[in-house]
């Protein structure tokens, strides 16, 4: 069975879940315990509560811990909490690991957990509220345990706490954390003027990492990122471009690893940021349906992504709880797309700006070509991903192509943040940049937050997705997988969430 067939059937082949990959050899061992990792972009902020982007999670997971964490195969594990118990329907007690200190020497206590929660939900630039929906209070119970109280029974509460990285209580009111102080296996050792971040292994509760020094560099341009890897300037490179995979695979001393990602490539439509005819056009669901029908997603998956993708039928990855296997992709039909545009009163088309990060230009080119064929004249603008998010949040971007992951493995990640009507007080809609608001979808999303019965909850999430797909504030494009470049002799652990947890890396002897 091919990877494409595996995704379509709703499961992932075993190779995607293998946890330890590596080959013998010591050609790169001369780095002496140092590993340089090229990320797809620079990290906008090192504040653990002011981001929700894969590269930032990947980097910061080396410096910070949460109460609980996911294994490489997305199983829940203890972290700074050694165990937990359900006190009643609304309360969970977490027992904390003793003897842990932050990197600055401060003892870790229950008060730090409570302070981290207050900071995450109250921070003006906070991006984690959707993970903490329904949690009313995190209260210290002595030094070694905390009580987490929710408004009602919450079946995903413990899983969502994987994303609350814990900081010292002294940082509760800090406007922006620029130098991470956590309890992770690496201590922050500086950031250069280009955004590169360095870490040095440190003695914490974690097993001592084999890699002494790690350095993360952001290289937006994928061709340059590839060159840095093939020429030996970096040891690991994420998201190697599909068109260069064959060439990289033939490079001496280099190898390719399939990197599963839980993201879905999406096209967000934000009418309020458009001007002129585009504003009215993008507000019309018929136009949005025309856009989806006009995009040849089969070609995008098979040609542009060289077969390393499949057409997305919905907003979440097939392994995510809430995925609906009964949904079928909207077919490519430019004739029907043109008919819908005429019906909506925009037969002459319109001009609109598209924001994108540093993704394959072929992807952008196909969107421009396909939408242009029905009269929608797209003007692309490439900017860094942090700037892309900031501009979308500020209401300055009519179209945005990006990838969105449900990293908790649950569709509520996307539905709570992107589909629910914005409700900052309750943590909903933090990434609803398009202004979509559907009371029925809101009700389904909120009901799913409280539903304890697994099958009923699955139906609620699926129904909420179907409601959103009727309104199409966001167009699902493709589900992808990527290739990670790894130097010969470096053993790495591949995680299904795409995080690069360097404490599990080692140079082969």
Tell me what you see in this structure.
The chain is of the alpha+beta class and 509 residues long. It folds into 3 domains: 18-40 and 185-260 and 484-507, D-Maltodextrin-Binding Protein, domain 2 (3-Layer(aba) Sandwich); 65-171, Dipeptide-binding Protein, domain 1 (Alpha-Beta Complex); 263-480, Roll (Dipeptide-binding Protein, domain 3). 27% of the residues lie in helices and 23% in strands. The protein has 15 helices and 22 strands. It has a 7-stranded mixed beta sheet. Strands 15-19-14-18-16-17 form a 6-stranded mixed beta sheet. A hairpin with a 2-residue loop joins β5 and β6 (91-96). α13 packs antiparallel against α14. The radius of gyration is 23 Å and the shape is globular. Mean pLDDT is 90; it is low at 1-30.
């Amino acid at each position: 069975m091919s990877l494409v067939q595996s995704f379509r059937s709703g499961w992932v082949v075993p190779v995607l879940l293998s946890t330890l990959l590596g080959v013998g050899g010591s050609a790169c061992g001369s780095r002496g315990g140092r590993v340089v990792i090229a990320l797809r972009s620079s990290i906008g902020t090192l504040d653990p509560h002011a981001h929700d982007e894969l590269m930032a999670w990947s980097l910061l997971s080396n410096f910070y811990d949460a109460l609980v964490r996911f294994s490489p195969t997305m199983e829940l594990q203890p972290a700074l909490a050694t165990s937990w118990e359900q006190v009643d329907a609304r309360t969970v007690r977490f027992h904390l690991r003793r003897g842990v200190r932050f990197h600055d020497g401060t003892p870790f206590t229950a008060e730090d957990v409570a302070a981290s929660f207050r900071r995450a939900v109250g921070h003006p630039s906070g991006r984690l509220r959707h993970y903490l929906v329904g949690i009313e209070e995190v209260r210290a119970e002595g030094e070694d345990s905390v009580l987490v109280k929710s408004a009602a029974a919450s079946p995903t509460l413990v899983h969502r706490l994987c994303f609350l990285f814990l900081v010292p209580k002294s940082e509760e009111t800090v406007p922006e954390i620029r130098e991470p102080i956590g309890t992770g296996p690496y201590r922050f050792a500086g950031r250069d003027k280009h955004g590169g971040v360095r870490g040095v292994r440190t003695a914490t509760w974690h097993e001592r990492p084999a890699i002494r020094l790690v350095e993360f560099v952001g290289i937006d341009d994928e061709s340059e990122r590839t060159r840095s890897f093939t020429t030996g300037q970096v040891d690991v490179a994420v998201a190697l471009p599909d068109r260069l995979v064959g060439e990289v695979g033939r490079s001496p001393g280099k190898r390719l690893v399939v990197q599963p990602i839980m993201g879905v490539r999406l096209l967000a439509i934000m009418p309020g940021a458009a001007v002129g005819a585009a504003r009215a056009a993008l507000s019309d669901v018929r136009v949005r349906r025309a856009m989806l029908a006009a995009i040849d997603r089969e070609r995008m998956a098979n040609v542009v992504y060289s077969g390393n993708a499949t057409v997305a039928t919905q907003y979440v990855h097939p392994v995510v709880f809430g995925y609906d296997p009964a949904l079928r992709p909207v077919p490519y039909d430019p004739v029907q797309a043109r008919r819908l545009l005429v019906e909506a009163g925009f037969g002459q088309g319109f001009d609109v700006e598209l924001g994108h990060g540093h993704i394959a230009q072929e992807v952008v080119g196909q969107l421009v070509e396909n939408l242009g064929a029905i009269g929608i004249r797209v003007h692309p603008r490439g900017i860094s991903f942090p700037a892309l998010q900031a501009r979308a949040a500020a209401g300055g971007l009519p179209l945005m192509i990006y990838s969105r992951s449900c990293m908790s493995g649950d569709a509520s990640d996307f539905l709570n943040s992107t589909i629910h009507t914005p409700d900052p007080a309750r943590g909903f809609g933090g990434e609803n940049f398009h202004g979509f608001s559907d009371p029925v979808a809101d009700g389904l999303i909120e009901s799913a937050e409280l539903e304890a019965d697994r099958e009923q909850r699955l139906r609620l999430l699926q129904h909420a997705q179907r409601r959103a797909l009727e309104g199409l504030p966001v167009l699902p494009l493709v589900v992808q997988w990527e290739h990670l470049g790894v130097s010969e002799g470096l053993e790495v652990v591949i995680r299904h969430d795409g995080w690069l947890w360097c404490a599990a890396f080692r140079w082969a002897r």
